C-alpha cells in the first residue's frame, strides 16, 4: 500500500514557482534556439523566400551540400575514460595568430540581404568571441567598415580575382592597409555555379519588387522595413548588374587565373596567404610546394560544382600528406560543435562556418550571431568533455571513425590534367 496525504499549502507553493516571463521578444526567440537547426527554422520564418533561398540554396540538385552535411552526421566518436575534464581549453593558433575557438566566420556574399546589420553584426560578434571574421569580395560592408566593427580582433579578407585585375589588387592593398592579417585566395569560381533557386525565385541584384515578393512580404514586414529604410543594398566593392548573383559572377570573374596570378598576389600581400577551394589531394600537395601558408578544403558550400568532393572526407588524406607543412582548414556542412571537433581530430587546424552564421543573423541580427557562436561553443565544449580531452591538441584520428555511405567504384590513379 502507498501512504497518501493531502499536500500542505507550503509544499504546493514550492512546486508552483513560475518562471519569470521574458518580455524581450528577440531575446525570448533566440533563447528558444538550442541548435543551429532551431536558428534555421526561425530564420526561415522571418526572411522572405528569395533572400532565405539565396542563403540556403546550393548548385543544381544541391547534392554536394547534402552529402557534406551527411558526412558529419556519419561520425562515430571513441571517448577516453577517467580523465579530469573539469576544465577544457578551446583556444588554438591559426595562421600566425590566436582564436578562442577552433572556428571562425567564413566569407559570405551580399550579407546585408539576409538581415540589414550584415557583416557589421558578424564582425562585431566574432571580435567579442575572440574568433576571426572573414569579409567576402562580394560583401555588402566595406573593408574599412568591417575594421571599424571589429577594431581589435582578427579580420581576414577573401579575394576573387576578377577580369579587371586592378580592382582585385586594389582590394588586396586596402585590406592590408586596414590591418587584415590573412588573405583567402578563392580558386573554385572560374564561373558561377547553377544556383537554380535564385533563377526560379527571380532573385536579382538589387532585389526588385514583384507580385510574388509583395505577397511573400506580407507576414514579414520587419524585413521590408529594414530593407526600405537603410542604405541601398549593394556590393561594397563591386557595381551591381541588375541580374542574378550568377550573372554578376560570370561577368566579373576571370576564368583564366593560374599560378602566375597566385605568385602576383603573393608579392602584393604582406600577411598570411591561404588558398580556399582546394578539392583534391594533388592540388593540396602542389600548393604546399608553392609555399602557401594554408589551404581551406571547401566545395564552396555546394554552391559551385555539384557532386564535388566532400571536404570532410578529403581531410584525413590531405592532413596526412601535407599537414606537417601547411595549416589546413575545412568548411561546408558544419551545423554542430561536434562537427568541428571531428574535423579537428582528423587533422584540420581550423574550421569555418557560413550558413550557420547566416541563420543566426537572419534570426536576430547581431544577437543572433552571438547565439550561433554560443550554441556551437557549448556543443564543442560538451563534446570535448565527453571525449575526455582537455585541449584540442589531445584530439587524434583515434577519436573518430568516418562511416561512409558512398563508396567509389574505383580510384583515379593518374593526375587529372595528365
From TrEMBL:
Entry-linked PROSITE patterns: FMN_HYDROXY_ACID_DH_1 (PS00557), FMN_HYDROXY_ACID_DH_2 (PS51349)
Cofactor: FMN
Signal peptide as annotated in the record: none
Entry keyword annotation includes Oxidoreductase: yes
Keywords, ordered alphabetically: Flavoprotein, FMN, Oxidoreductase
Residues annotated as domain FMN hydroxy acid dehydrogenase: 28-405
Lineage: superkingdom: Bacteria
Membership in a protein family: Belongs to the FMN-dependent alpha-hydroxy acid dehydrogenase family.
Name the UniProt record assigns to this protein: Alpha-hydroxy acid oxidase
Organism this protein belongs to: Leifsonia virtsii
Amino acid at each position: 500500500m502507498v501512504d497518501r496525504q493531502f499536500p500542505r499549502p507550503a509544499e504546493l507553493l514550492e512546486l508552483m514557482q513560475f518562471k519569470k516571463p521574458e518580455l524581450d521578444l528577440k531575446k525570448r526567440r533566440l533563447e528558444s534556439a538550442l541548435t543551429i537547426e532551431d536558428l534555421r527554422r526561425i530564420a526561415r520564418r522571418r526572411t522572405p523566400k528569395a533572400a532565405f533561398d539565396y542563403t540556403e540554396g546550393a548548385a543544381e540538385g544541391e547534392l554536394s551540400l547534402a552529402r557534406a552535411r551527411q558526412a558529419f552526421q556519419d561520425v562515430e566518436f571513441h571517448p577516453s575514460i577517467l580523465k579530469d575534464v573539469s576544465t577544457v581549453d578551446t583556444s588554438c593558433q591559426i595562421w600566425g595568430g590566436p582564436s578562442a575557438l577552433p572556428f571562425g566566420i567564413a566569407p559570405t556574399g551580399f550579407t546585408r540581404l539576409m538581415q540589414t546589420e550584415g557583416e557589421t553584426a558578424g564582425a562585431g560578434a566574432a571580435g567579442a568571441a575572440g574568433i576571426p571574421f572573414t569579409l567576402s569580395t562580394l560583401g555588402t560592408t566595406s573593408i574599412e567598415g568591417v575594421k571599424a566593427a571589429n577594431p581589435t580582433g582578427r579580420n581576414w579578407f577573401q579575394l576573387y580575382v576578377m577580369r579587371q585585375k586592378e580592382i582585385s589588387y586594389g582590394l588586396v592593398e586596402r585590406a592590408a592597409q586596414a590591418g587584415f592579417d590573412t588573405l583567402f585566395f578563392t580558386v573554385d569560381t572560374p564561373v558561377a555555379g547553377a544556383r537554380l533557386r535564385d533563377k526560379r525565385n527571380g532573385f536579382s541584384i538589387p532585389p526588385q519588387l514583384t507580385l510574388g515578393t509583395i505577397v511573400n512580404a506580407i507576414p514579414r514586414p520587419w524585413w521590408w522595413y529594414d530593407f526600405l529604410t537603410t542604405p541601398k543594398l549593394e556590393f561594397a566593392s563591386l557595381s551591381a548588374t541588375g541580374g542574378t548573383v550568377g550573372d554578376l559572377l560570370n561577368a566579373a570573374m576571370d576564368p583564366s587565373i593560374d599560378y602566375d596570378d597566385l605568385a602576383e598576389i603573393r608579392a602584393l600581400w604582406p600577411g598570411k596567404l591561404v588558398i580556399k577551394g582546394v578539392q583534391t589531394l594533388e592540388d593540396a600537395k602542389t600548393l604546399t610546394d608553392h609555399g602557401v601558408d594554408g589551404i581551406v578544403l571547401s566545395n564552396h558550400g555546394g554552391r559551385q560544382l555539384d557532386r564535388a568532393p566532400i571536404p570532410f572526407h578529403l581531410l584525413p588524406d590531405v592532413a596526412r600528406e601535407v599537414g606537417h607543412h601547411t595549416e589546413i582548414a575545412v568548411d561546408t556542412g558544419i551545423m554542430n560543435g561536434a562537427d568541428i571537433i571531428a574535423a579537428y581530430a582528423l587533422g584540420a587546424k581550423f574550421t569555418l562556418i557560413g550558413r550557420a552564421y547566416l541563420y543566426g543573423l537572419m534570426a536576430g541580427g547581431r544577437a543572433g550571431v552571438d547565439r550561433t557562436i554560443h550554441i556551437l561553443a557549448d556543443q564543442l565544449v560538451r563534446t570535448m568533455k565527453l571525449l575526455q580531452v582537455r585541449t584540442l591538441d589531445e584530439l587524434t584520428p583515434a577519436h573518430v571513425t568516418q562511416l561512409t555511405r558512398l563508396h567509389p567504384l574505383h580510384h583515379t590513379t593518374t593526375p587529372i590534367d595528365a
